[in-house]
Amino acid sequence: MGDLRARMTKATPTTPAVSPPDQRAHMRALRRRVRGPRIGLLVGVPAFVVAAAVAGVASLRMPIRAPVTSPDVQLEELVRKGPASYFHHVFDPGGLLGQLGQVDSTLDDFERETSHGVLLAALPRLPRDGTEFTMRAAETWQPGVNGADNGIIVFVFPEDRLVRVEVGYGLESALPDVEVHRLVSSTLLQAARTGDLAAGVEALVPPLLERLRTVPSAVPKPRSRFADLAVTAWEIPRRARLVWAAWLGGVTRLRLTISAAAAFLVALFAVLLSRLAYSAVLLTRRVRARGDPARLKSLALDLVNSLLRLGQVALILFIMVVGTSFFFPGTGDFGGAGVDLRW
Hints:
The chain contains twelve helices and five strands. It is an alpha/beta fold. Strand 3 and strand 4 form a beta hairpin. The longest helix has 42 residues. It is elongated and about 85 Å long.
């Protein structure tokens, strides 16, 4: 009997018992694994609930107010959209120049051939800031090639009986002020006196393009993305004002939709920032305690991963707000002096 019991004891494998210190270390590792997702829940859910509750109460209690937009603000919004919102080279939101599809096609082919940008713009009247408005529009639309200033814009203001021409520095050799006066007076102004602006524009384009063909084609210069960052950043407050105006003037369903989206963004950034802070604090403690190098490497990777996630979300929101103009900017800058002619 004793021999049988001894043989059974030898044949049965024994599992090594886990010592209390090893068991405590194992439990600490398990807690660290679940603490990251737990932080997301503990921070994200309350942040979303609080933000959604505040925005929802405001949506239901605040009276609907239709935003009051002045004509100058509406005009600035049209200018910001630019000719590409209507044609490529003709900016005529009010249809003051009639049908100029063929002219737009001609200007498009001309820019592809020579790189010189020619734009036509028609607005009822010149805004109060006058020269500053036309220069601001030129800098916004950016005709021509970057670094060459080879763009030209012809503005027509029928109510003021005014034609203003903005010429880039790169084209002044072919279009000095005297030549601009001669071309516009012999074509556009003559037709404008008879009330046919479309015929005047069609008569102006051929001799104007003929003069510009004497200027060699320009090669784009490299453009600094950091130089565009300040200009693009101005879009963020403007878009925020548009969303705020839509929220103020919207119905309850629209308000609740915007509020839910805003609450989700608040919760998302709260989760990302909390995970980033948690990773940074944990890594700092381990470094001070001179912990295991493998564990320090893992914590450093967690911190980098948190930074990358935050950067990805910020980049997506940046593109949604300002569009792709920062990454794919306009064709060129504009600079030049303006010429005024009246009929």
